[in-house]
Structures are given as structure tokens and as C-alpha cells.
Amino acid sequence: MTTTYAVLGATGQQGGATARALLAAGVAVRALVRDPAAAAARTLAGAGADLVRADLTDQDSLRSAFSGVDGAFAMTTSFTPRGTEGETADGVRIADAARAAGLPHLVYSSVGGADRRTGIPHFESKRRVEEHIEGLDLAATFVRPVFFMENLSPTAEGGATILRLPLPADVPVQMVAVADIGRVAAAVLLDPSRVPGGAIEIAGDELTGAQAAEVLGGRYEALPVAVLDDPDLRAMFTWFVEARPAYQADFAATRALDPQVLDLAAWAAQRATA
To answer: Any idea what the Cα angle at residue 30 is, between residues 97 and 96, rounded to 5°?
Structure first.
């Protein structure tokens, strides 16, 4: 019998990384997408994935998409017009559909710190999804990634490279590449026993803003947190400063699941040659 895993949001960052990691492991992937005709979906199909239309707002379509597979990956986001309430509703709908379909195992990508009452809105919305999953008769693992390396966006100005963040230069932040989220999620889908506690916080590096800028070949400029219009992001960057340590990833466990895990220098080198 063919082992098949469903990946929700397979044309997105995390879903795409998970789908590619599963395909690289030689298993069948059911890529759940909104538009099978989209270019990103066709690329996945060309890599060997089976495209299936699924709608986050339609529990029946999700239940059908989760039926007959050996496990599934899912993530949610609050960065839509529906905000954190919409994110929680999506996560609850995903979990309920998975249970109704008799899904053997769900990997839910949450966020580092979701279990520590941070008060950050998009952390708390993901924790509410986790809590709903915990209340169901559903085998699940929570993968909790930290700050994405992809969110570091230096700018070129007058021949100089400048990294700006609303963060003091000496505050360390743990970070992870999206590709590593996918590789960890795939490893957990293939063998859930590798995360015996049912949850893992993952990271590939820990650097201050100044150190990150140096790795990226530039200089750092700290901005005041007040420059952020979004109160959710203001809360997160304030937490980085006040919690110390904020994220608490298990670096050794991350590497055990993903021996290819990237530090920032390796991530930047890959980006430069892509």
C-alpha cells in the first residue's frame, strides 16, 4: 500500500516546504490547494504531488481531503482580514475535519512560545487551536517554529547593506528557515514517535540584530517598536526584549529531526545562489 500524506496550504511557504520534504523522502503527497491551476500548484504536480482542491472555510471539503491518508500537515495564519478570530476558527475547522475523517496523525505548525501565555495575539490564537486539538480524540504533534529567517529583509542604500528591526542591537532572537520547518514537519509525519512529548519548539540559529546584520554583510540599525503600526507585531517585538529568553527552542532535537538544519550564514549562502 502507498503511504500518502496530505499537506494543507501546499503552495504556501510552510506547506510548500513540507510537501517538498515529503516528496524528497519518496512518499506520496496529496497537496491540498485552493486553485489547482495556479502556477505554484502546477509546479508541485510536476514534482509528483497529487493536487486536491480544499477550502479552509468548508469543513466537508477538508474532511474529504483528509480521508484515506496516513497523516496531514496544517498551519493557520492570523494575517488575513479575519484576524486572530479567523485563524482560530480555521484551526478548529481543520481539527474537526481531521477527526471526522479518522486522520491517523495531524502535524499542526504553531509558533514558539504558544504554550507560555505570551499575550501576543497571533500566538494566543494558535494556542487556542492547540487547545482544541488537545480536547479531541486525535493524535497530533505541534511543531512550534521561532522567528523566520525569511523575515530578515536588509536594504541596499548608497552602496551599504542595512538591516533594520524594531529591536535593540544586543537582544538575541532565535530564528529558523522555512525549509527547516518543512523538513521537521515531514520527519514528524513519517515517524511521530520522534517527538514523544507531542510538541517541539524548533530553531536553527540564535543571533542579535547586530550579529544577524554582520552575517548578512551589512550594518544594523535598531528602530523603536513604535514604528510598527500593527499592535500584534508590537507585542511580539516587546516580548523579545522583555522575556529574555523569549523563544526556547530545542536546538539538539531540531538537528536530530533535521540534520540539514540551516544557521543564518548557511541560509544566506543558499539564498545568494538560488
So the answer is: 5
Measure the CA–CA gap between 82 and 19, rounded to whole angstroms: 26
> Could you tell me the three cell numbers for 177?
528557515
Q: Is 261 helix (H, G, I), strand (E, B) or coil?
A: coil
- Alpha carbons 48 and 30: distance in angstroms, whole number: 10
Angle made by CA atoms 259, 261, 262, in degrees to the nearest 5: 145
155-182: pLDDT as tens digits: 999 889 999 999 999 999 999 999 999 9
Domains of the chain with CATH codes:
4-273 (3.40.50.720)
How far is Cα 143 from Cα 257, in angstroms, rounded to an integer? 11
φ/ψ of 104, rounded to 5, equals -65, -30
Instruction: Give the tens place of pLDDT for each residue, 110-141.
Output: 999 999 999 999 999 999 999 999 999 999 99
How is residue 72 written as a grid cell? 496531514
Rounded Cα distance, 86 and 78, in Å? 7
pLDDT at 21 over 90: yes
Rounded Cα gap, residues 244 and 171, in angstroms: 8
Strand (E) or helix (H) holding 220: strand 219-222
Asked if residues 145 and 176 have their Cβ atoms less than 8 Å apart, the reply is: yes
The beta strands (E) that lie in 177-266 are given as 199-202, 205-208, 219-222
Angular region, 32: left φ>0, alpha ψ -120 to 50, beta rest: beta
- Give the pLDDT band of residue 274 (cuts 50, 70, 90): confident
Cell of 152: 530578515
